[in-house]
Write a structure and sequence with these properties.
Helices cover 13% and strands 36% of the residues. The strands form eleven sheets. The chain has a nine-stranded antiparallel sheet with strand order 7-8-9-10-25-20-19-13-14. A five-stranded antiparallel sheet has the order 6-5-12-23-22, with no helix packed on it. The chain has six helices and 46 strands. The protein is mostly beta strands and 701 residues long. A hairpin with a 7-residue loop joins strand 31 and strand 32. This is rhamnogalacturonan endolyase.
């Protein structure tokens, strides 16, 4: 009897343990029933121990499978007000029929989006147009494109109607959502179309925005070096901050996190170039959950690989930027004429969620996992699961191969390999026009050490091939239209770039790299210091650097002496106005002093003046006479990129090859005067990329 009683107690203990341990109710009931049946079994405890081990192993295997989603089919539910897609890892809720993303359930977080916001202010597309037109692309219908156990793709659509447009842009809209088995996230892309009879319109900005749960997501990461705890949105109001030189920049005076007191917050401090803007997002440290925007390709972005744009910023807000005038101004082409038919696919991008255990270093683990996922998405591009006929798969695309060499016989006689040059395909235009091309697709790569390049997965269409080479001024364009057809591979062979050059180098300032990064960037005013980067790099991102010029040059302006001065120490990174009495701005004149041992009065010299940025500025050039009523050369008023105020180190690239007669120089000491004439604000400025004085041309074999 004692053995029977022990067996019954053991069975009861196993029953209770399994009931608490198992998350699957069916399995729990199964083990309860089998345990009762074993009460009369002569094998008793041995069998129960075996069952306990098998239950433990089976449960953990099942939990592992559930975590990676491999046995969870994708389910779809459509109701009058909502559409829900669930793959066992994430549950995505979209408002029907508007297409607003209103819920993303992940792990124990019922919604990673801010539940206090209205439905049209959680996860949404938007476009900024003319005359205060701000269109959130609210749709009218939903269509199931694909529904299988492995994938669901939906399209939320709207056809533009001239009779009832209600300040919406003349645009046909498809907002696509894809949820796949085993992927903790969702893919989003848009297909936008203008028909020939649509009225003219500007589309200055196209993006997807996500407003995350504010009491959860406090840690932001946009690169390996830019990762930090961020202020809350309320910290930017007038009770907790002081607005600085423009509305985007505030000084935190009484933030909710005392460690942030005295820092400046400005969303432009976290901008990135297109080529680097592949991953940004937020982490909820309390939950060990990350929310990431993964962009595996830049083909649908505008302005080329170096155009800068926003990433994530206080909100917490995460952005996927496709089109904007940031760092280019209105020079980028965003105007659509009546009669101009247009259609473009933006994306897909992946909204990826991940998690780490409470004992782990959340930030490092989640960031590294997001980078791993980014690598997988890049390897999978172009996606073969997107079902729009407007998104060609790999076999429907083409490839262009070649080699780029550089010929500059004033440097070396032999052809040089164009190492790490940027080579790309973009819409037909002039050399360098890709910087301001805002409607089509662009495909870029970098050359290897001997100048070879391969541009893969190019959509069918007509393109020109463009390039620029580090260390050489100017823009390369192949004088040949390239037509990509599905599946073709074009071999261009060896191409030779002859950069602008009229004579030997007499002297030079800077490095031709299209930025002002090599020049002197001052320490910020301690009052406006910001811990933007982990390692203190990218000082140009700090607020108020433009005012430091007046601190360094309170009386006179910059003087640079060739052969003595060092451009990394003595050439200020931005040519800005100087603040004088009564806080007014004054135009500034910089001097370049140099010596010429001999002068060919009958020859022609060339001043190569390369600009990295310009904003409402004008550079006037004078030779040896600062008081000349008329400058020898003027750029006239140029630029809208606003790079100084937006903490950039470059905007649009410009090159001026200024031919100067020899009689403008004299043997011995000479001075070039560069005057930036505009001074209505501190942000009217230019950044120089590189300056070179060339002597008269001579025969070079």
């Amino acid at each position: 009897m004692e053995k029977v009683e022990n067996r019954r107690q053991l069975v009861l203990w196993v029953m209770i343990e399994l009931s608490l341990f198992l998350s699957d109710g069916i399995s729990a009931r199964f083990f309860l029933i089998t345990s009762f049946c074993m009460l009369i079994s002569p094998f008793g405890p041995s069998l129960l121990l075996y069952m306990r081990i098998m239950a433990y192993v089976g449960l953990n295997c099942r939990k592992l499978l559930k975590d990676n989603g491999s046995d969870n089919r994708v389910r779809l539910q459509i109701s009058h007000r909502h559409v829900v897609i669930d793959n066992g890892l994430v549950e995505v809720t979209i408002e029907n029929p508007t297409g607003y993303l209103i819920g993303v359930k992940y792990k124990d977080m019922q919604n990673v989006l801010e539940s206090r916001n209205t439905n049209h202010n959680k996860g949404y597309w938007d476009i900024v147009g003319d005359e205060d037109v701000y269109d959130k692309l609210e749709t009218k219908h939903v269509e199931v494109i694909t529904q299988t156990d492995d994938l669901v793709e939906l399209s939320f659509t709207k056809k533009w109607n001239s009779r009832n447009h209600d300040k919406t842009l003349p645009l046909n809209v498809q907002k696509r959502f894809i949820v796949r088995r085993g992927i903790p996230g969702l893919y989003m892309y848009g297909i936008f179309e203008r028909e020939e009879d649509f009225p003219e319109a500007h589309m200055y900005q196209i993006r997807i925005a996500f407003k995350l749960k504010e009491n959860k997501f406090r840690f932001m990461a946009v690169s390996d070096t830019i990762q930090r705890i961020m202020p809350r949105s309320e910290d930017r109001d007038e009770r907790h901050s002081q607005t600085l030189g423009f509305k985007e920049a505030v000084l935190l005076t009484n933030p909710s996190n005392p460690s942030l007191k005295g820092e400046v917050d400005d969303k432009y401090q976290y901008s990135a170039e297109n080529k680097d803007n592949k991953l940004n997002g937020w982490i909820s440290e309390d939950d060990g959950v990350g929310f990431w925007i993964i962009t595996p390709s830049n083909e649908f972005r505008t302005g080329g690989p170096h155009k800068q744009d926003l990433t994530s910023h206080v909100g917490p807000t995460a952005l996927s930027m496709f089109v904007s005038t940031h760092y280019t101004g209105s020079e980028i082409d965003t105007f659509y004429k009546q009669g101009e038919a247009w259609k473009k696919v933006f994306g897909p991008v992946l909204i990826y969620l991940n998690s780490a255990s409470s004992k782990d270093d959340h930030n490092k683990i989640l960031w590294n996992d997001a980078k791993r996922q980014l690598s997988e998405e890049i390897e999978s591009w172009p996606y073969n699961f997107a079902r729009s006929e407007d998104f060609p798969h790999s076999e429907q695309r083409g490839q262009v191969n070649g080699q780029l060499l550089v010929q500059d016989r004033y440097m070396v006689r032999e052809l040089m390999h164009a190492k790490s040059a940027f080579v790309g395909l973009a819409a037909p235009g002039d050399a360098g026009s890709w910087q301001t091309e805002g409607k089509g697709y662009q495909f870029w790569t970098q050359t290897d050490n001997i100048g070879r390049f391969s541009i893969k997965n190019v959509r069918p269409g007509k393109y020109n091939l463009y390039a620029w080479v580090h260390g050489f001024i100017g823009n390369y364009k192949l004088d040949l239209n390239i037509t990509i057809q599905p599946g073709n591979k074009i071999e261009l062979g060896t191409l030779i770039y002859d950069p602008p050059r009229n004579g030997p180098t007499l002297w030079e300032i800077g490095v031709p790299d299209r930025t002002a990064a090599e020049f002197f960037i001052p320490e910020p005013n301690p009052q406006f210091m910001n811990s933007i980067t982990k390692d203190g790099s990218d000082k140009f991102r700090q607020y108020g650097l433009w005012d430091r010029y007046s601190d360094i040059y309170p009386e006179g302006d910059l003087v640079y002496t060739v052969g003595t001065s060092n451009y990394s120490r003595d050439w200020f990174f931005a040519h800005v106005p100087r603040i004088v009495a009564n806080s007014t701005n004054r135009a500034t004149t910089w001097q370049i002093k140099y010596n010429l041992e001999e002068v060919n009065e009958h020859g022609t010299y060339t001043l190569q003046l390369a600009l990295a940025a310009a904003s409402y500025a004008e550079v006037q050039v004078r030779f040896n006479n600062p008081d000349a009523r008329r400058p020898y050369f003027t750029t006239k008023r140029i630029g809208y990129d606003n790079v100084v105020a937006r903490h950039g180190i470059h905007g649009l690239y410009r090159l001026y090859s200024i031919k100067v007669p020899g009689y403008s120089f004299r043997q011995g000491d000479n001075t070039i005067y560069l005057t930036q004439t505009r001074s209505q604000s501190s942000f009217e400025a230019v950044m120089y990329d590189y300056i070179r004085l060339e002597g008269p041309s001579s025969l070079v074999n």
